[in-house]
Amino acid sequence: MLAINNLHAEVEEKQILKGINLDIKPGEVHAIMGPNGSGKSTLGHVLSGREGYEVTQGSVQFGQKDLLEMSIEERAREGLFLAFQYPVEIPGVSNMEFLKASVDAVRAHNELPDLDAVSFMKKARSVCKAVDLDQSFLKRGVNEGFSGGEKKRNEIMQMMLLEPRLAILDETDSGLDIDALQVVAEGVNSLRSPDRSFIVITHYQRLLDYIEPDFVHVLAGGKIVKSGDKSLALELEAKGYAWLAEEVV
Amino acid sequence: MSQEHIDKLIESDYAAGFVTEVESETLPPGLNEDVVRFISGKKNEPQWMLDWRLKAYRAWREMTEPEWAHVDYPPIVFDEISYYSAPKSMADRPQSLDEVDPELIATYNKLGIPLHEQAALAGVAVDVVFDSVSVVTTFKSKLLESGVIFCSMSEAIKDYPELVQKYLGSVVPQKDNFYAALNSAVFSDGSFVYIPKGVRCPMELSTYFRINESNTGQFERTLIIAEEGSHVSYLEGCTAPMRDENQLHAAVVELVVLDNAQIKYSTVQNWYPGNAEGKGGIYNFVTKRGIVHKNARLSWTQVETGSAVTWKYPSCILKGDNSVGEFYSVALTNNYQQADTGTKMIHIGKNTRSTIISKGISAGKSSNVYRGLVRMNPGAEGARNFTQCDSLLIGDKCAAHTFPYIESKHPTAVVEHEATTSKVSDDQLYLCQQRGIDAEKAVSMIVNGFCKEVFKELPMEFAVEAGKLLEVSLEGSVG
């Protein structure tokens, strides 16, 4: 699904990623943990192709394609989804209009006709319900005046609508209360399938109680310093990151 | 989203920029009393009309161009402009659409203007002004059944002289300003609408203006009279071919809204804006004003995307008690376009109300100015105004300015002003792109969202058109 090989990247001429290697197979859930400033979010943005995040070395293979050759929207249309840590507001553009444009862009890429309005609405309503958002959110501006928790649930709603091949969740749990956390986790779990993979970036082990990862990686100083199964997350919860950081230094 | 990327995409094509090969009769450039006499004579005008024009011309000669607007352009040489051009085949006015030069019809079809059955389907009556002459007015007879007069200004001067004499210049006097005076002297045609007492006009009325000939100025004059308790919705659209030289368009629109009447006046202005280097384009210097009597309502809605330089302030004189004035505006500038536009709300009567919603969008190296005046006169007891003025910037080389003037001479008058400036942010574009939406579509969505409050004021079929127009005007404005 995704093969990251010796990935180096810099932001504003500062080296952030210093040789990431990661192989994600279809159906797997990989958790990426690590201290602040270790490069977790950077990895997400590099993979989605954000402007200003420059790859200086290495390669990323997404399915049969060279991910780094593609534009942001091409990656998205190929099925890469990033749930943002800080979703921005787009005043005046309704969630519905935004989602329809998004769904149709992906469909056009797959040589499918635009989704008819009735089918779209049916689907949009059902995913809204799944993340416990009132249907009125479809008519509101994208993230406009949403609470922190609503913004995060809105991201998961979009993910469920778009059904990506690879979803990257960038600290989706931050700022969520326990109920919202469960809603988000349920949304993710409902999408788990043998041909869909997840990268769950998180600071805390808490989310992983609900979304059970197949692998846990610790990112520190721009490198993966330790990988393991879900028990690694519990170990980190108990011991913190300091012992790993020391190993790297 | 890098600036470079944004720059690359700030290059748009002007879809209405073709020239139509129609044989024209065009007056040599220059302006003097003989030209005024020629125009008047060409139209077989009565003596009073010629006198009125000459009075305006003499006043104009003594006037100087206004310089207070926040726009910058080389001085206009008024003697290099031709003040009259008419398609030659129009010498004998066509009696029906079948007699209209097919080239002209083709032009309007190219512009997507509904002339034939389309017009019937859309329920729109259209008057078309090509260069200086009104070409054809559809649905004239159908409208007359309900007593509505919709014809060219030239016809009105001939057929309804008492109405024209009574109201022409009553809202915008000949000496009102430099360009209004010029227009009064040389206006060649335009639309005339009269809605009788208590009549609700059965369809949307619409005029399309097009400048075709080079080196000609277009000076149309529109006069709409809504008698007591009547109601009309009117839309005008404008386009011009792409030409390297600048062309002058100086129009005057006068609206008379009598007691309990309503006029809704919508404009979709898409004059040629000049090329990406700022060469060519229309100078759009327009005076639009309405006088609003007791319990009457005047609503201006404008979508301004064209012209190299725009200078335009559709205004309401709220004379009657309880009268209402509204101004909803979207002004978009791209490349080197300059717009200085806004409104004037003059509250004279008691309990008069006005609303101003202005949305300015600047892209490229353009400059977009909102200039508005809200004046509460000493008699404007209980008058209220609400102004909301929002600017959206795309890229980092454009400018947005807001000059609100507020004068309140009555202690009970309430004036509210809200203003915001925002930018299409990289983060917004990133979010859209991450969801598979390309940047161009994203910008157009964001801009349309920004303008939503104004678009919903447009007649339905034109709201779609306006959205499309913004899309085209922004084509390539962001990547």
Largest sheet of chain A: 6 strands, mixed
Strand content bin of chain B:
25-35%
Task: Please tell me the overall pLDDT of chain A.
Answer: 92
What is the tally of helical segments of chain B?
Answer: 12
Pattern of helices and strands of chain A: EEEHEEHEEHHHEHEHEHEEHH
Biggest chain pair contact, residues each?
Answer: A-B, 30 and 26 residues
Low-confidence stretches of chain A: none
Assembly state:
heterodimer
How are the strands of the largest sheet of chain A arranged?
6-9-10-3-11-12
Structural class estimated from helices and strands of chain A: alpha/beta
Distance between the termini of chain A: 32 Å
Mean pLDDT of chain B: 83
How would you describe the shape of chain B? Answer: globular
What structural class do you assign from the helix and strand content of chain B?
alpha/beta
Number of strands of chain B: 23
As a percent range, the share of helical residues of chain B equals 10-25%
Largest sheet of chain B: 11 strands, mixed
Total beta-strand segments of chain A: 12
Secondary structure: helix percent of chain A: 25-40%
Low-confidence stretches of chain B: 5-12, 90-95, 114-124
Could you tell me the radius of gyration of chain B in angstroms?
22 Å
What's this model, at a glance?
Chain A has 249 residues and is an alpha/beta fold. Chain A has helices spanning 40-48, 72-77, 95-109, 117-130, 136-139, 148-162, 178-191, 206-210, 230-239, 242-248, and strands at 2-11, 14-24, 29-33, 53-62, 65-66, 80-83, 90-94, 141-142, 166-170, 197-201, 215-220, 223-228. Chain A has ten helices and twelve strands.
